[in-house]
Sequence to fold (182 residues):
Amino acid sequence: MIRLSSMFWLLLAAAAALATFAVKYEVQALDAQLADIRRATAAESRELRVLDAEWAYLNRPDMLAAMNQRFLSLAPITRKQLQTATAEIPMRPAPAAPPPAAPEVGSGQGEVVDLRPPGNAAPVVTTSLDRTAAPEKLTMAPPPVAPLPIKAATPPGPRSPRFGSVDSRSLDQLFARIAAAR
Fold:
């Protein structure tokens, strides 16, 4: 009969052999995953090289000039476009007045017709209507266009440590530096 110690060693050797085979198959699976990852990394690096080459091709100055001419029609900034002070920047034009509505014809002469939209401060237009007169007699004076009010500049707020505040002095200095650099 086999001794108990021999049986113990035989079972221990069998368990070690099984563990070795299990580890071997796990290592083979990890090697396959590593090979897949390396192939994917190589493909990504090839794709990045292709994209870098395309980027360099598309950013050539002659290519950018052709695309600018084809799509944008941008031109270089002229010296006349550079302003040295904020006061020289042209203001936005006043919005166009809406077309006047047709006057309402009433029964009397010298009728006053209000052509203002609600809430508008434009003056009232006076028309001279005479039913017996020729249509040329209709006179309408267009309302004068009032300039837009200019808001007073607010004092500069607290300065940001990164950007600073934007006020007319700093813009004037920026414009002066740009003009001096040209």
